[in-house]
Design goal:
Blueprint lengths: L1 H6 L1 E8 L2 E7 L9 H4 L3 E3 L5 E3 L16 E3 L2 E3 L11 H12 L15 H31 L2 H7 L1 H17 L5 H32 L2 H26 L1 H4 L6 H29 L8
Antiparallel strand pairs: 1-2, 3-4, 5-6
Helix pairs in contact: 6-7, 6-10, 7-8, 7-10, 8-10
Amino acid sequence: MVSAALGGKVVSQVVEGDKNFALQVSFPYDFRREPEKISNIPIVLPTGGIIPLSRVAHIHYDTGASFIYRENHKRYIPIKFSVTSKDLGGTVHRVQKEAEKVKLPEGYYLEWSGQFNEMKEAFRRFYISIPLAIFLILTLLYIFYGNMRNVILTAVAPVCAVFGGLISLLLTDQPLSISAVVGFISVIGISMFNTCIWITHYIEVYRETKDRDKAALQSVQDKFRPVLMGGLIASLGLLPASVSQGVGSQVQKPLAIVIVGGMLIGTVIILLVMPFLFRFVRVEK
């Protein structure tokens, strides 16, 4: 009765030619605006009697939700806010600490969702996929080289690239986001590929010369320029994206910064270190 009196109720359909209209009835507007008149809405009893609404309900003005949301057959109240800073995870963690100080009524609980929840799910997938990918890469390298020493030497370049990416994030005050993680995956793959080619070339030259010093010198002369150009092209190509400030830059900027810093700093380090590591490369006879 209250629903029909205040919100209206469809009681029939009006047909005009090919058109259909719902016929809705409700109490006059005054009965839906003033609490005194709402309290006088008649309620028909099962026995046939009529009583005013004020006999079974207390009508008064109060603040509340304009709409009741439900999910999984439960009511919920959405509280939305936007994060203006670059660090989504850090901002939400600070909000969570403040929210812990709020004493919720019995039966209430907090559930965090939105982009923060999606970020956690993405990191959870990375925790599985990245170690698995690294394990498969190292396994293939071990099958290719036949020994673990060369595999470890090949992994030196990705470590340098990751170090360069972390330095670039710290210098630009960027948080570790999903985009940045994708950038780290990219620099790890490129740097490991370059080092694998470099070590393979050293092994081939050493088998011909049987002299480590000559093989190291020849490898540096043959592969120094390609490795340097590969690192410069990867870093300079994404340099505009790493310094952009336009719409959408908050998504692509961390990725570009990691690749620029990782390939630039990592390439310089590996070019300086790799010639000294050649003496530790194991050559199978």
